[in-house]
Write a structure and sequence with these properties.
Two copies of one chain form a homodimer. Chain A is mostly helical. Chain A has helices at residues 20-39, 42-49, 63-86, 93-110, 112-119, 129-150, 161-178, 193-208. The structure holds a DNA duplex.
Chain lengths: 219, 219
DNA sequence: CAGCTCATGTGAGATGCTCTTACATGAAAT
DNA sequence: ATTTCATGTAAGAGCATCTCACATGAGCTG
């Protein structure tokens, strides 16, 4: 918890915190991880970093503004991780696509606090332009990958890449929401969410004509 | 708003409400529709039906218990509507399956308050056995439909019906969450959510080998 | 260094929600 | 008529959001 103060000491450095905005964001992540986005309170975050309950209002208009900022950062991290997984379609588009799907689910599981803030906190995604843009950039990675895959089909058999990316997004988000997290109570599954997503993608890509053999994922 | 009292009169019938439990549930639906599941308060619901803020505690242990009850009823209505859409696979499994998908999205849109309570209110689905059972029954409709479809494939090409039903559920839920409602801010789409889901299902079923022609949906 | 400015933090408090407790009411049972 | 008890009320403790007047001290200016 070195972010609770900007200095190395354990006690307060002075009247001013010095790094309150960052500290509050990290406190929010900790608290959301512990008690969910609904259980997170502004007052708790203030206590957690050792300031009065009025101090956070110097940095965020209200409780929702802090949540929005956390969500925005979540989308930025999400974008970075998806982008790295896609890796410009290397070593080949199919493998990269599978990595992309795994990265989606990995984010939902490993960055559960961010994921909660992004999708389960009840904030309106179009209320803040920065948030909307960050979400758009995350989606753009899926779109780019879908375009690369679609380009491998002859033009007369080629589906709209936007539609494909929406399908992939919805499927990934659905699996993440229902199975990789708490939406339906961590329902008992016959397979891991990653396997479930991969299987769905194989069927889907075969339906597009991008894969011929039922058991092959490579191109 | 005839449910606010059990009688036809506008004023209170007496000291006792007479129908408070039902009235509170309906008030919750109205308030959730207006301000979202997070904005709904117990005190608001009590005011809405004209009782003191302590009265609801005679019928629900706490605020969450009311939300759970609303969600449970939502799942029961959901099950009924999905079941009617599936209609035992008539007139044919493919048409019935398409109807099922449309019913899923129609519910998310038309019963937005129920949908919010069910999926966006932050309640734990496994905290209440009645809620979990109701959710299971809704999923059972999807599972039944998937089994019927899978049975049309020869055994050696037949995928696990459970897996197929999970795919269908995740895809439907993903589209409903992201596009038919507010999750990503009612993102501008090149097509209606129903068309998006139908297109995805056609590709998916083709990938399973259940459909051969790219533009045919009937069997 | 002295003094000014202003971003940042504090304390007190208004308002509202959740939930509890002691008491009131009246419909149904006897 | 009387009793019973489910259902309602009033009052209040505890906590959260958010505001406002005021305190602090970091950084600038000379």
């Amino acid at each position: 918890m070195s972010w609770s103060r900007h200095g190395p000491g354990s006690g307060r450095r002075g009247y001013h915190h010095g790094n309150l905005r960052e500290a509050l964001i990290n406190a929010a992540l900790d608290l959301i991880a512990k008690k969910g986005p609904a259980g997170f309170t502004f007052a708790d975050a203030a206590r957690w970093v050792g300031v009065s309950s009025a101090a956070p209002y110097r940095h965020f208009r209200d409780r929702e503004a802090l949540l929005v900022d956390v969500a925005r950062r979540g989308f930025e991290l999400f974008t970075a991780q998806l982008d790295r997984a896609w890796n410009d379609g290397r070593p080949d588009p199919f493998t990269a696509f599978e990595n992309l799907g795994r990265a989606y689910l990995a984010f939902a599981r490993e960055q559960a606090a961010y994921y909660s803030a992004m999708f389960e906190s009840g904030i309106a995604h179009d209320s803040d332009s920065g948030l909307r843009d960050a979400a758009d950039r995350a989606f753009a990675v899926l779109r780019k990958a879908s375009e690369t895959l679609c380009a491998r089909l002859p033009a007369e058999k080629r589906p709209p890449a936007l539609m494909v990316s929406l399908h992939v997004w919805a499927l990934s988000h659905g699996i993440a929401s229902i199975f990789a997290r708490g939406d339906a109570g961590r329902r008992k599954l016959p397979m891991a969410p990653e396997e479930l997503l991969e299987a769905a993608m194989l069927v889907y890509l075969r339906g597009l004509g991008l894969i011929s053999s039922p058991s092959s994922s490579g191109g």
